[in-house]
């Protein structure tokens, strides 16, 4: 769609739909990451499931595991989701180990599990440049879309470098920016990552009960997952295309108000 036409379409969305926000009640958010510290005060009582992906003789499998975080990355992401959608239910899906590194097969298995298990939102604050994973990841992201599961993925932290799965159009790709207000995000029509959210010096929960200042697209991503959870809480029947459209319209309005209208034109 030509940018001007898209802009006119976004402006035609009823204001009452754009204003509808819940608190995440009834929404299951799968945080596919390094695990979650379920005893952290910011997450206490909100981590409904903890599973881990392990490689066995028959291939990758997903099993219930003791809650915990191998790297801190997942706790930070889950906490950011809950900051925006405090009543959401977190499903911790551990695919990363120490130093927040993992295997492509584990990510594929995690996506399979989250889609089949009925997660409403899949927060994927990670990525790969391995071209062999492109087609398997695309197939799963498209399957999630058809199942009305909304995948939110972090873009690469390196300018001009594209990573999977964030490049796929059936998900919501998120870039990070120096935005202080967690309620703020911007729509950038035509960019590889059309949503820009807070991702620089973000205060986030960290294992052990404390907080840490974190930077990266990984931490912009859960801001958008939190906004999606709020939208679904207020409007449970929304489909992925409708959620993306509402986010784009709200992000366009934020860009206008904050003097970034040219970026969103």
Would you kindly provide a written description of the structure presented here, covering whatever features stand out?
The protein starts with a helix and ends in an 8-residue tail after the last helix. The chain has a single domain, classed as Rossmann fold (3-Layer(aba) Sandwich), CATH 3.40.50.200. The chain has helices at residues 3-11, 15-19, 73-84, 104-117, 134-146, 217-234, 240-257, and strands at 28-33, 35-36, 47-56, 59-64, 68-69, 89-94, 121-124, 150-154, 172-177, 186-187, 195-198, 202-206, 210-214. The longest helix is centred in the C-terminal third of the chain and has 18 residues, at 217-234. It is built from 7 helices and 13 strands. Helix 3 (73-84) packs parallel to helix 6 and helix 4 runs parallel beside helix 5 (134-146). It has a 9-stranded mixed beta sheet, with helices on both faces. Strands 2-5 form a two-stranded antiparallel ribbon. The chain has a two-stranded antiparallel sheet with strand order 12-13. The protein is α/β, with parallel strands linked by helices and 265 residues long.
In short:
This protein has one domain: Rossmann fold (3-Layer(aba) Sandwich). The protein is 34% helix and 24% strand. The protein has 265 residues and is α/β, with parallel strands linked by helices.
């Amino acid at each position: 769609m030509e940018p001007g036409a898209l802009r006119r379409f976004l402006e035609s969305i009823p204001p009452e739909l754009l204003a509808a926000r819940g608190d995440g009640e009834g929404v299951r958010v799968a945080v596919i990451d390094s695990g979650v510290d379920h005893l952290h005060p910011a997450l206490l009582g909100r981590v409904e499931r903890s599973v881990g992906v392990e490689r066995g003789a028959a291939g990758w499998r997903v099993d219930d595991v003791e809650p915990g975080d191998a790297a801190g990355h997942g706790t930070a992401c889950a906490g950011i989701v809950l900051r925006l959608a405090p009543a959401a239910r977190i499903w911790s899906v551990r695919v990363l180990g120490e130093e927040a590194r993992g295997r492509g097969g584990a990510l594929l298995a995690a996506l399979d599990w989250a889609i089949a298990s009925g997660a409403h939102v899949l927060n994927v604050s990670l990525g790969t440049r391995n071209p062999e994973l492109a087609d398997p990841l695309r197939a799963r992201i498209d399957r999630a879309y058809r199942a009305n599961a909304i995948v939110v993925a972090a873009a690469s932290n390196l300018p001009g470098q594209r990573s999977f799965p964030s490049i796929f159009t059936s998900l919501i790709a998120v870039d990070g920016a120096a935005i202080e207000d967690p309620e703020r995000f911007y729509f950038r029509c035509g960019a590889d990552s059309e949503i820009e959210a807070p991702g620089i010096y973000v205060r986030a929960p960290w294992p052990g009960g404390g907080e840490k200042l974190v930077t990266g697209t990984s931490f912009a991503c859960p801001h958008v997952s939190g906004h999606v959870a709020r939208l679904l809480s207020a409007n449970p029947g929304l489909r992925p295309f409708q959620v993306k459209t509402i986010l784009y319209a709200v992000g366009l309005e934020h860009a206008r108000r904050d003097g970034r209208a040219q970026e969103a034109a």
